[in-house]
Amino acid sequence: MTQLKQINIFLTLLLTVSLFACDTSNTSDSLSLEKQQLGKQIFFDTNLSTPPGQACSSCHLPSAGFADPDREIPVSRGVHPDRFGNRNTPTAAYSSFSPEFHLDTEEGIFFGGQFLDGRSATLEDQAKQPFLNPVEMANADATSVVEKVSNSDYASDFKAIYGETIFNDVDLAFDKIADAIASFERSKEVSPFSSKFDAFIAGDTNLTIQEIRGLDLFNRQDKGNCAACHPSTNENNDIPALFTDFSFDNLGTPANPVSPFLSQDLEFNPDGANFIDFGLGGELADISENGKFKVPTLRNISITGPYMHNGVFNTLEEVLDFYNERNNDGVIPEVANNVNTEELGNLGLSAQEKNDIIAFLKTLTDGYNNE
């Protein structure tokens, strides 16, 4: 066989593989888009709770940065108006970038997972839990959820993606419901990277002088030191800054005595007013992790209040005051063990410097229009 013929055969094979890859990619992209659209329908379906009335979007509304739109109460209300969760609902935006829950053996620190205590390793596992939580969507079991989806307007779309007989296997169908929701949560619609900060990084707009000062204070180790846990850059150049390192921390946050969770029926809070949220430590049954919660993204932070795991602070100003004055203000932590004493407290920020940091934080809200 001549060398020229060998080259021609190689090029032909290479072209065939390339075309096959393109066809496969196009098919995969189409299926991914269909799953995202299906997941969106499930995400916004208020018929999937018992009684009907609450959807995933009820506590993760796009206009509220995919967090709870009800800012009047510090924690989230379930489909039953007298039932409340024990925590302030975290944003679903950018949650898809959280790695699976794991222990970094070199640092000896836990990272990732879903929920504030990392109890779900993946988005898919997280998507199932609110359906069956008695203080959230309050369905009796997976069968109830699957039956509702099978009777929905989008049931034919569900079968087109997952198979005509998918509803015959409840466990598999419930897995696929979670799969579709997770597909939507991985979409650009949920994580658009469309803030003023993103436009600034892309060179499409400028930050104001105050916002620049705030960014500098945010990054400086001798000032705000916010970037220690909320890095404003990303080592992976393919992904913009996520403003979280997905680690777990006890900030020394005080308890929230006005949380309605504390006074609800003992069936849903046996400890009553004596309830203490141990966060990661409670999940792992490890006192060395007590009081630690997953570091949230600061993207959309100006529209996702109230703040902290128990919603104890209503405004960013209150949060900055706490970060700045902790150790001096006499505030008693809900969990006194394992408090981070190195990266916050005694920051010495002036009123102007706190305002500058808040001005920068407001540049992280998605939907910026530079026109």
Automatic annotation (TrEMBL):
<dbReference type="GO" id="GO:0004130">
    <property type="term" value="F:cytochrome-c peroxidase activity"/>
</dbReference>
<dbReference type="InterPro" id="IPR051395">
    <property type="entry name" value="Cytochrome_c_Peroxidase/MauG"/>
</dbReference>
<feature type="binding site" description="axial binding residue">
    <location>
        <position position="230"/>
    </location>
    <ligand>
        <name>heme c 2</name>
    </ligand>
</feature>
<dbReference type="GO" id="GO:0020037">
    <property type="term" value="F:heme binding"/>
</dbReference>
<dbReference type="Pfam" id="PF03150">
    <property type="entry name" value="CCP_MauG"/>
</dbReference>
<feature type="signal peptide">
    <location>
        <begin position="1"/>
        <end position="21"/>
    </location>
</feature>
<feature type="binding site" description="covalent">
    <location>
        <position position="229"/>
    </location>
    <ligand>
        <name>heme c 2</name>
    </ligand>
</feature>
<keyword id="KW-0574">Periplasm</keyword>
<feature type="binding site" description="axial binding residue">
    <location>
        <position position="60"/>
    </location>
    <ligand>
        <name>heme c 1</name>
    </ligand>
</feature>
<keyword id="KW-0575">Peroxidase</keyword>
<keyword id="KW-0732">Signal</keyword>
<dbReference type="InterPro" id="IPR009056">
    <property type="entry name" value="Cyt_c-like_dom"/>
</dbReference>
<keyword id="KW-0408">Iron</keyword>
<keyword id="KW-0349">Heme</keyword>
<dbReference type="InterPro" id="IPR026259">
    <property type="entry name" value="MauG/Cytc_peroxidase"/>
</dbReference>
<feature type="binding site" description="covalent">
    <location>
        <position position="226"/>
    </location>
    <ligand>
        <name>heme c 2</name>
    </ligand>
</feature>
<feature type="binding site" description="covalent">
    <location>
        <position position="59"/>
    </location>
    <ligand>
        <name>heme c 1</name>
    </ligand>
</feature>
<dbReference type="GO" id="GO:0046872">
    <property type="term" value="F:metal ion binding"/>
</dbReference>
<dbReference type="GO" id="GO:0042597">
    <property type="term" value="C:periplasmic space"/>
</dbReference>
<dbReference type="GO" id="GO:0009055">
    <property type="term" value="F:electron transfer activity"/>
</dbReference>
<feature type="binding site" description="covalent">
    <location>
        <position position="56"/>
    </location>
    <ligand>
        <name>heme c 1</name>
    </ligand>
</feature>
<protein>
    <submittedName>
        <fullName>Cytochrome-c peroxidase</fullName>
    </submittedName>
</protein>
<keyword id="KW-0479">Metal-binding</keyword>
<dbReference type="InterPro" id="IPR004852">
    <property type="entry name" value="Di-haem_cyt_c_peroxidsae"/>
</dbReference>
<dbReference type="InterPro" id="IPR036909">
    <property type="entry name" value="Cyt_c-like_dom_sf"/>
</dbReference>
<feature type="domain" description="Cytochrome c">
    <location>
        <begin position="209"/>
        <end position="365"/>
    </location>
</feature>
<keyword id="KW-0560">Oxidoreductase</keyword>
